[in-house]
Write a structure and sequence with these properties.
The chain is α+β, with helices and mostly antiparallel strands and about 950 residues long. It is about 45% helix and about 15% strand. It is built from 34 helices and 29 strands. The protein starts with a helix and ends in a 32-residue tail after the last helix.
Amino acid sequence: MGVRQVLRAGVAAVAIVAPVGAAPSAAPKAASIELHVAQADGFSRVEFRGAPSATAKRDGQVLTLIFPRDADPDISRLRTAPPKWIKTAEKRHAGGRLQIVFTLAADADAKVDSADGTAFVNVFQKAPPTAAELAAARAAAPEAQRPNPIPAGGVVHMESKVVNAQVLFTFAWANRAGAAVFRRGDAVWVVFDAPATLDVSHAPRGLVQFSAVQATRGADYSAVRIEAAHGVPVFATAIGATWTIALGPGDQGPPSVVRITRDEAEGPATLKAPVAGATKVVQMLDPQAGDMVRVVTALGPAKGLPSRRDYVQLAVLPSVQGLAIESYIANLTVVRDGDIIRMSRPLGLALSPTLAAQETARLDADAPKPASMPGLIDYVNWPRTGPKGFLARYNTLLTAASIESANKDKRAPTAARMALARFLVGSELSFEAIGVLNGAARASPQLMDTPEFRGLRGIARVMARRYKEAEADFSAPVLSEDRSSALWRSYIAAQLAQWPEARSQFARGMETLAQFSPTWKARFARGDAQAALAQGDLPSAEARIHLALADKTDVAEELATRLVQARVIEQQGHKDRALKMYTALASVPMQALASPALLRATQIKLEIGKVTPLQAATVFDGLRYRWRGDATELETIRALGQLYLSQGRYREALEALRSAGTRLPDLPEALQLQSDLAAAFRSLFLDGHADGLEPIQALALFYDFKELTPIGSDGDLMVRKLVRRLVDVDLLDQAAELLKYQADNRLDGVPRAQVATDLALIYLMNKRPEQAIQAINSSRTTVLPAALNAERRLIEARAWAGVGRYEAALEIIENDTSKEGQDVRGEINWKQKDWAKAGPQFEKALGARWKDPAPLSADEEGKLLRAGVAYSLAGDDAALNRLNGEYKGFFDSAHNPEALRIALTGVSTNHLSVADFSRVSADNEAFTGWVDKMKARFKERPAPTGPAKAAAPAPAGPGKQAQAAPTVPAQG
């Protein structure tokens, strides 16, 4: 068989994947209009940079953009991989003007506009508005504007006359005006909702009904102050646009009554009042008193409040029209919602419970009575069972509560249920008490606004160790001023390690401490001691310990106090004394005390050298299974993890620290433990402590603890470092999986596009062109650096060539004249078996490499091999002889000398079959050389950083299901 036959037969099996390079060969001149395509969740965007405007014509789903001049932009992206809602695009030239014709999807719409000197078209699917959106739009519609009541000239003249024993003041407006008429002190105020000038110069004088009239005006109101004695009746009447105010007895009917009630809606305690035709809430300055009054104006007919209504923080003045509110606090809010007026403050108003007096009267004489303060427990009377014992007492109270709960009226009595709850709290049956109180609150929501209910349920929740729920009860506005509740807030804050809050609340409630039982006095004082200890205030901590030990309590409470005392002594530097106390406490038959004591004792022994790290680790490891469910467990796990970390046993340390999981997340020890775990993981994969591991071992460790990947650029750099190591050892599937998660879930914009480019590159290295195309398409954006954009086009072209779309690949790099672009063209010509073009392109890529005597790299050898094969198949013997003459000195040092010798000379020194030649001339040289070059380029690329995306499931490890992603979205 001749050399030419050998070559032809061998090429039948050749599938060399040429290197992806930078930009294409010589092509048409760069277009004066540059096209950019991007896709978001709700629309696709095509920008024409260099074209400040375009005229749009629409014919069904065909959209034609006509530009004011001619140009030749590259629209290959729109033809090969059009974005969503665009089927295809076509470029036309007519009358010296460029036309781009888009064919839109059937359900697509488009908008053409320009911004910053760039024309663009947005294509999107416009869904019809939902019923909820229509309702929201109607609700958001602006309120219909009333005609301006101020007459021309801006002056309203007050007309006055005396009819029988009445003085009538008439105010004629141009259109209907809202008004308020109320008494304050010795004055009657008439307030209008329009800032007109009120002319009262013609008011009569010397009448008994009033003594003086004074007009005033604000930014959004006008008013008249009439000095009138308390006994003078006042009436207000509206006829059309005219208001008439009457002073003195007359036959006018009384106004409609505005009823002020508690707003039953959830939220801070609020008063509401329906005022028909309410127009405005104005803040009026009373010059006599020097304060502000909130005034609610309304249209006629008249409606008002017949008598003054006093509350703790405000008063509603008597009125014959509208409302007037005096405020005793700075943050009172009065707002109008249509015809509803609401009065409140951010924390809610302090309103007296409407049922308080009724509840006391309804209580059975023998039932548990409310304590003197909401936060107190009456241990003398509440748990009392009587001669028949607990069950009889419980059944009696339960029966009464059941009968009472049969009444489904929300205003039904709740006395029996509250009595049962007091009995259960006094008996420290916390869960049962919570159930009774929750049921009562569901049946009678107004209970939530009573201090005793909040206090009882908060106490029961503290007893049940539901500290977050108890915190919500004791934070209710109705308990904000209660001193006894402050001690409960202090205790709760101590359990949640909110040390400053614990100390401040203890100081607020200190004056009521003596009213609590010795047990709770000790617990409150011990909690404050722990807070002082955490803040480094050892004298205060010691003083609180003495206070906790002042009263006689049971043994468990005293030992718990002694445990805190031992910690104070330890912090004071007396470790020997503290060790003796810990050792004694570790021997008590109460694990809740013995376990933390043993932990502290072992830590001190390890610190002073009385036990070895191995012995301490054995104690810690046993202790974490011996006692579970509180801060001691977390402290033990943390101590064990830190011990392993100090010894360099990273996997054991990570496993130990992670064993606590997410239980008890509110405790400070949980936060410290998670901090240690994150720091250990960071030291391994960011600070380089894992560099000594084999890449596959490092990957396994990373996958086992991937949820610890930190947020932001640090996490992205960590992934980047690991990916580089994986690429070095050809673990391309695993590297691609990490980069895909990073691109899909952690980055946006340019950083995401850069990572997706690297991902596509790895897919090509792994011979997966379809996934490379998907990676490029999923990360398109309109703003990319020129170098990155060029690199992406080359990778995309190589990927399209990899799936046999050669014309699309050539169209993408049509304008690329770079060396890398020429390499891609040569690769495509090779795949198309266009030998006459492929041979010169591969030879040109080598340049004058034959002048350098150094051995050829794998990439160079692959190009030389393909150049020789192409020339042979094209029948270009002269070119083949030239190559042989230039490169024959490189045969012996080549990776596959026989293949190179046959390709360039047709002579083999050894027997080489057609199959052998096909094998050595396929992917080995060219593809391996390109991969090596890409690996080197990949190492040099910096890690991208960018804005975070919402958290998503992290990639699963090899052979594992995907687990949770990092708990916080990455900012990288």
